[in-house]
Amino acid sequence: MNKDRLDHIELPDVFPKELIPLGQYSWPASQTRQTIGPLLSKARAHLWPSAKTSVSPASLSARSGDQATKHAHTLLSRWANNLLDTAYLDWLAHRDAAIPRVFVAPPLPRCLLAEWAAQRGVPVAAPDTVSDLPAKLDRAVLPSLEQFFIRSAEGITPAHDALSQLASVAPRAVISCNSWAYQFVQTFDDLAAHLGPCLTMPAFDAAALAALMRQATQLAKDQSQFLSADSGDNIFETNEDGIPTDPFFKHLAHRSLGHPWVAVAMFEAATQQHTETERDASRSTTWVRLPEAPELPAQFERHMRFALQTLLLHGPREEDALMRSLPTEVPPAIWSLLETAGFVCRTPDHVRIQMTAYPTIRAELGTAGFNLDRL
Q1: Strands 225-228 and 285-288
Q2: 335, 342 in Cβ contact below 8 A?
Q3: CA-CA distance, 53 to 195, in Å (whole number)?
Q4: Residue 148 confidence class, pLDDT cut points 50, 70, 90
Q5: To 5 degrees, how large is the angle CA 121–CA 350–CA 106?
Q6: What is the separation, in whole angstroms, between the first and last Cα of the chain?
Q7: DSSP 246-258
Q8: What confidence score (pLDDT) does residue 354 get?
Q9: For residues 172 and 94, is the Cβ–Cβ distance under 8 A?
């Protein structure tokens, strides 16, 4: 099914409906008494195993080429565009001057605001074009503010210049900045003075994630039954209130921090196939088990944390630029080591965070005393 046809499909009603003020993010809770029942069932199944729960990790193998992931990304892009429409389209249409509004997003491999602006015909100022903007614009978007500076008092100057230039040509503008960079920017009063009200993405809870992946698998025409490799139950079954009865999506919401793109990546990593050869129902079954979190190698652990914080702060960027942004000297092979450990992805052009590892990275930095972002 192509993207145009997806545009006519209604998004699930349980999806969050609007952006939220920065600081009001609702972090999905961990296990509570709501999931004690399923946990007791799991314990009983371990003591008295039944046929449907006798799935060992050794009998599972990762699936490849999952079309459901592509459909999930398309659905999330539509959802994000709807939220940005509601928050900014009418506001940008006014002609009187106003302090720029800010869209603060959690780490992503691409800029949602830039994609939205391109589809809505709003002028976009990139780092290499901001000085070439026309003398007068009705409105504009400045995406990825983190691309305009490096982490130092002197390195913040290009961002300051870009905001001043933008204010001189566009009476109204929306600026996007990742959540880690925005926290850093707030330490510079003269820069923060250019920035107005901040909105951010709301979290996806278990019901929203279940609805997202159910619709994505249906669009992919995946006829498999998706069963938890831990409980043996169908992860998409819901109660009369529409809440998943199996705790898989509650675990997923908590593990992913409510970040839907992280959750999609984790879901893809969690979907596995039964490799036993006997002819049974498992041939049409997809077993689901969340993967173990990656671990930082003990060697160069401190250097790796600095490298990961720098990558979160500046977003996807070239290795040379990241090395210049680091506050301390690190081994030249640091990005290769982090890639091997499962924390980053590298291409010839840039390095970016491995999405499934983002919650672990955030936890590692918090435990080590690093300043964290705020949603």
Answers
A1: parallel
A2: no
A3: 54
A4: confident
A5: 60
A6: 35
A7: STHHHHHHHHTTT
A8: 96
A9: yes
Q: What are phi and psi of 174, to 5 degrees?
A: -120, 135
- When mean pLDDT is compared across 46-50, 287-291, 315-319, the lowest value belongs to 46-50
Show Cβ contacts of residue 284 under 8 Å, excluding neighbours closer than 6 positions. Answer: 223, 224, 225
Q: What is the pLDDT of residues 118-128, one digit of tens each?
A: 999 998 887 66
Q: Distance of alpha carbon 274 from its chain centroid, rounded?
A: 29
> What does DSSP assign to residue 193?
T
Q: Report the pLDDT value the prediction gives residue 154, as an integer from 0 to 100.
A: 66
C-alpha to C-alpha distance for 48 and 255, rounded to whole angstroms = 28
Burial of 241 (0-12, 13-18, 19+ CB in 10 A): exposed
Q: Which residue has the higher pLDDT, 255 or 165?
A: 255
Residue whose token pair is 């088990």: 289
| Interval 130-143 mean pLDDT | 77
Q: How far is CA 115 from CA 4, 77, 81, 230, in A?
A: 16, 9, 9, 39
- Provide the CA 76 distance to its chain's centre, in angstroms: 10
Structure tokens at 228: 């938890």
How far is Cα 280 from Cα 81, in angstroms, rounded to an integer? 43
Side chain identity at residue 170, one-letter code:
A
Quick one: tokens of 42?
């799991």
pLDDT digits (tens, 9 = 90+) for 259-274: 999 999 999 999 875 5
pTM: 0.87
Is the Cβ–Cβ distance between 286 and 324 less than 8 Å? no
Task: Report the length, in residues, of the chain.
Answer: 375
Q: b/e map of 138-168 (b: 16 or more CB within 10 Å)?
A: ebbbbbbbbbbbbbeeeebeebbebbebbee
Interacting residues of 368 by C-beta distance below 8 A, sequence separation 6+: 305
Helices (H), the chain: 3-6, 36-47, 67-84, 90-93, 112-120, 157-169, 179-185, 189-192, 206-219, 248-255, 260-270, 301-314, 319-325, 334-340, 358-367
